[in-house]
Automatic annotation (TrEMBL):
Sites where the protein binds FAD: K126, G192, T217, G218, S219, D396, M402, L403, A404, H405
Residues that hold NAD(+) according to the record: G254, S255, G256, Y257, I258, G259, L260, E261, E277, G350
UniProt source species: Brassica campestris (Field mustard)
Domain of life: Eukaryota
One Gene Ontology CC term in the entry: mitochondrion
Protein name listed in UniProt: Dihydrolipoyl dehydrogenase
Cysteines engaged in disulfide bonds, as pairs: C117-C122
Assembly notes: Homodimer. Part of the plastidial pyruvate dehydrogenase complex (PDC) containing multiple copies of three enzymatic components: pyruvate dehydrogenase (E1), dihydrolipoamide acetyltransferase (E2) and lipoamide dehydrogenase (E3).
Gene3D superfamilies linked to this entry: 3.30.390.30, FAD/NAD(P)-binding domain
Family matches, as InterPro entries: Class-I_Pyr_Nuc-Dis_Oxidored, FAD/NAD-bd_sf, FAD/NAD-binding_dom, FAD/NAD-linked_Rdtase_dimer_sf, Lipoamide_DH, Pyr_nuc-diS_OxRdtase, Pyr_nucl-diS_OxRdtase_dimer, Pyr_OxRdtase_I_AS
């Protein structure tokens, strides 16, 4: 397959380097647009430039080149170099990287391209949260008056909000599909399963072979026993994202990422929320100090109450004029505690791996609580503890870190390995975010985890903090409520964890996550320059607040050069 790409630049804005613009030996650069893979916008990346020409006319420079696509497999005894089962974010990331590496690639999808994240998760939920953020701002009369603004009563159209979420999911799904088609990835429709070593079945009776296989089948909402989901009054996140109704009073079972984000949406749209949490505190997965501050800002001032240390042992949908009934029992003693009557209940108790029917028995692989066991290189481990040759599993299905971008990173790591470059992903460098208003983000260890590690390994832990109240940009936005916290080793400057609560926290975390990934130490990164006035200075001040005993740099020279 042949494809072509062209770029045009205004001569007035283009500075030409002091070297030939194109030569037979020049390596093509992989262009990026605004941090997104350009393939999503219909640009096909070149595998190898076969021709290159530059013409200047009308004060514009035009660049064009022909490029090779997804051709024959490197080993002709297989149909493909790589087959990926599951076309979610993880499978998509692996497929694009595989084609860039020259692998003939196919991806199998039994549902719709994009998986949970695009269709029933990250993407539509962010559309709803965008609405809730604007509603909160418009409804906050004191906040608007502080800017000198006067706004009449804010309202919303439920169907219009729902359509915004649905339309965004459709747009991103189409972008992912088109990007793979443009690169020549074969998209095979049907449920995929492993028939045996290097052999996959999809659809009714289609069989293909591949040198390497990646399982990327994702996850589904987890519903505990005793809970009856009807999709109307007792729902999962899959149903909630359709926003078919906005109940007056909704109980949310679970106060993790999913529960917190939906509480933000529902309360902004006028609902009252009751959290039901099995552990003794809300937001148990977050750093305790961040959880305490977030509760003070995200829960206490809003129409939210909560029950902690209890299980929802039975939930019955509303019917025949009766409300949703929720039976609560003590999480430890299992004694009956209370009965709630609400308009709706959202089950946000996490997600379960989607691994049934994959033919794992054909290769002697037994799941562990539904998860496919893998090693640090995502290689699948069989029932005897041995590696299954040429078989990998990424994303939610392996349970290492159930985040869409973690799945993509794992997929890229696998492709690096199968193309001859050993690569082990550092999962402690992968950031996470909760898109409430304000946002919460984190990377690495929490303070309790860091102190436990320090006690076992015999080193000291220090804490640095900075407030959004000291940041000019945050104050200009009247958003001074927030905290950034870093856990680190004072003896060598190693960053163990960073946690942020505040305006655009999800965007601010990446400087810290990249520092952890690259092994950059505090004594080096604190010398970096940040534009003023920007929110990035929150992280800058955090690094500068750290006290490292040894001022000498310990960052490898190769990493310094990269930074």
């Amino acid at each position: 397959m042949q494809s072509a790409f062209s770029l045009s630049f205004s001569q007035s804005s283009l500075t030409l380097p002091n070297r030939p613009l194109c030569s037979p030996n020049a390596a093509p650069r992989n262009l990026r647009f605004c941090g997104l893979r350009r393939e999503a916008f219909g640009f096909s990346p070149p595998k190898q430039l076969n021709s290159c020409r530059f013409q200047v006319k009308n004060r514009r420079i035009e660049v064009s080149a022909a490029a090779g696509g997804n051709g024959a497999p490197s080993n002709k005894s297989f149909d493909y170099d790589l087959v990926i089962i599951g076309a979610g974010v993880g499978g998509h990331g692996a497929a694009l990287h595989a084609v860039e590496k020259g692998l003939k690639t196919a991806i199998i999808e039994g549902d719709v391209v994009g998986g949970t994240c695009v269709n029933r998760g990250c993407v539509p939920s962010k559309a709803l949260l965008a609405v809730s953020g604007r509603m909160r701002e418009l409804q906050n009369e004191h906040h608007m008056k502080s800017f000198g603004l006067q706004v009449s009563a804010a309202g919303y159209d439920r169907q219009g909000v729902a359509d915004h979420a649905s339309n965004l999911a459709t747009k991103i799904r189409n972008n992912l599909t088109n990007s793979m088609k443009a690169l020549g990835v074969d998209i095979l429709t049907g449920f995929g399963s492993v028939l045996g070593p290097q052999k996959v079945k999809y659809g009714k009776d289609n069989v293909i072979t591949a040198k390497d296989i990646i399982i990327a089948t994702g996850s589904v909402p987890f519903v505990p026993k005793g809970i009856e989901v009807d999709g109307k009054t007792v729902i999962t996140s899959d149903h909630a994202l359709k926003l078919e109704s906005v109940p007056d009073w909704i109980a949310i079972v679970g106060s993790g990422y999913i529960g917190l984000e939906f509480s933000d949406v529902y309360t902004a749209l006028g609902s009252e929320v009751t959290f039901i949490e099995a552990l003794d505190q809300l937001m148990p997965g977050f750093d305790p100090e961040i959880s305490k501050l977030a509760q003070r800002v995200l829960i206490n001032p809003r129409k939210i109450d909560y029950h902690t240390g209890v299980f929802a042992s039975k939930i019955t949908p509303a019917k025949d004029g009766r409300p949703v009934m929720i039976e609560l029992i003590d999480a430890k003693t299992k004694e009956h505690k209370d009965t709630l009557e609400v308009d709706a209940a959202l089950i946000a108790t996490g997600r379960a791996p989607f691994t049934n029917g994959l033919g794992l028995e054909n290769i002697n692989v037994a799941t562990q609580r539904g998860f496919i066991p893998v090693d640090e290189r995502m290689r699948v481990i069989d029932g005897n503890g041995k590696l299954v040759p040429n078989l990998y599993c990424i994303g939610d299905a392996n349970g290492k870190l159930m985040l869409a971008h973690a799945a993509s990173a794992q997929g890229i790591s696998v492709v690096e390995q199968v193309t001859g470059r050993d690569h082990v992903l550092n999962h402690l460098s992968i950031p996470a975010a909760c898109f409430t208003h304000p946002e919460i983000s984190m990377v690495g260890l929490t303070e309790p985890q860091a102190r436990e590690k320090a006690e076992k390994e015999g080193f000291k832990v220090s804490i640095a903090k900075t407030s959004f109240k000291a940041n000019t940009k945050a104050l200009a936005e009247n958003e001074g409520e927030g905290l950034a916290k870093m856990i680190y080793r004072p003896d060598n400057g190693e960053i163990l964890g960073v946690h942020i609560f505040g305006l655009h926290a999800a965007d601010l975390i990446h400087e810290a996550s990249n520092a952890i990934a690259l092994g950059t130490r505090i004594q080096d990164i604190k010398l970096a320059v940040h534009a003023h006035p920007t929110l990035s200075e929150v992280v800058d001040e955090l690094f500068k607040a750290a006290k490292v005993e040894s001022p000498a740099s310990t960052t490898p020279q190769s990493v310094k050069a990269a930074v």
